[in-house]
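Provenance

Sequences were taken from public entries as deposited. Structures were produced by running a predictor on each sequence independently, with no templates supplied. The record for DUF951 domain-containing protein from Paenibacillus albidus is shown for reference.
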Amino acid sequence: MERKVFGLGDIVQMKKPHPCGSNEMEIIRMGMDIRIKCTGCQHSVLVPRAKFEKNMKKVLRSAESGTDNN
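Predicted structure for DUF951 domain-containing protein:
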C-alpha cells in the first residue's frame, strides 16, 4: 500500500466531511497526534496519527508548493 505524504500546513480531504459541510482540513500540528482545523468553521480536532492516515483521502494543496497535487 502506498504511504500518503503530507506535511504541516497542507490542506487535506478526509473521507467524511465535517458536520459544518466542509471536507477540507488544514494540518496545524504534527507528532504522534495530528491536529487538523476545518477550513469552513475553524474548529480544530486532535486525531491519533494512525486514525488520521486511515481517514485521509488525499492532499488537496501542499504547503511547500502551494499548488494542487492532482
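The chain has one domain: 11-61.
The chain has a mean pLDDT of 86.
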